[in-house]
C-alpha cells in the first residue's frame, strides 16, 4: 500500500498539533538565569512533558522594548530541560522576563529578572558589587538517603543568600549528591538533578540571581572517581543539561572550565574532576587539572586586565593538609602552577573553593610576592562536620565554621583604593566572620 507524502506546511505544524493533544504543560523547575554577559544571557527552564518554551524580556520600565528568545521544544532525552539565549542586551541594564509555555505566560509568584554587567571601563569608576558563594546542597530523598539519617536541612538559606543582593552566584560543587543508585546510568544522574532542582526554596533564588557552577566529588560520581570513571561522560552531560555556564565546548581539553568577567573582577572557574588522576606511583605524574587546563589558567591570568583575579575550584587549592580531595594530592602539579603564577607576577589574586564540610580562610605567605588567601565555603544544606580532622597550618585563626553556611565576595571602594571583602554567614544570614583586603596589598596593577 502506497503512502501519500505529507505536505511541507503540515510537517512543520505537526509538532505543534501534537502538543495540543497533551494535557496543559506544567513547569517542573525554574526558570533559572545562567551566565549573564553584557550582550546576552542564558535562561533555563524545565517542564514536566514536551512543551514549546520561550522567554520574553525587556528593560525594566520599558515594556515597549519587549523581545523574545527563539522557542524550543523540550525533549525527554534532555529531561525536558532547555536553555535559551536572550540576545541583543545592553550593558548595565536590569531586565524583566517572562516564561512562555506553549505560548502562554507561566504563573510565578516570585521575581524574574536579571542585570547585565556594566561596560564601565574608560567611562565611569568601577562599580561596587557582591558575588554569592555556596555549594554542598543536599536535598533529602528518603528512599535513597542513608538509613536513620536526615543529611539535608536549613533550606531557608536560599532566601538568606537572596537578601545579600548578589550580582550573581558561584556554585562551588557538591551542588547535588549523587547516590549509589544514581552512579550507574545517565538517567539516574538526571533523576538526581531533577529532584534537587525542584526544591521549592531554590526557585526564587535562581530565577533572579544568575548562576555559574563548577562541580566536586558528589556531582561527579562515587568517592574517588577520576578520569577513569566510566560514567564521567554521563556526569558531564547531566551537569551541562542543568547548568547553563558560558563557553561550553570551547575546548574539550578544558572540561567544564570557564571564565566570567563582572566589573573589575574576573573569575576563573576550574574543573578538578574531568582530568583527575592520582593513580601514578610517581608524584610528578599525578594531576588534578591536567596540563592543558593548567596552561589555560596561567595564560588567562597573564592576559587578564581585571583588577581582581579570582580562581574558583570545587576543592581546596591552597590548603596544605594531605587529603585526596585537596590540590596537594597532586603536589608537583600544584607547586609548579603556583610557582609559574608567582614568576608571572600575577597580581590581585584571590582563591575560592568548596568541597569541604566546614568553612575556613587559608593564608599562604610567598617569598618576594604578596600573600594570597583562599576562602573555603562549607555546605549550604548538607550535613556539616563537627571538627576539621586535618592540620591546615595556613588556616587564619578564628575562621573555622562548623555549621551550614554561605559566603560573599564584595568588591568596593574608589578606583584608586579598591577593596575585596569576604564574609562567611550561617544559614540564617548571620555573619560569622569577615575580612577585608586592600587591592594595594595584592601586587602592582
TrEMBL record:
Listed Pfam families: DUF7800 (PF25077), PhoD (PF09423)
Domain PhoD-like phosphatase metallophosphatase, first and last residues per copy: 191-355
Domain of life per record: Bacteria
InterPro entries: DUF7800, Metallo-depent_PP-like, PhoD-like_MPP, PhoD-like_sf
SUPFAM superfamilies: Metallo-dependent phosphatases (SSF56300)
Signal peptide location: 1-25
Protein's name in the database: Alkaline phosphatase D family protein
Originating organism: Ruficoccus amylovorans
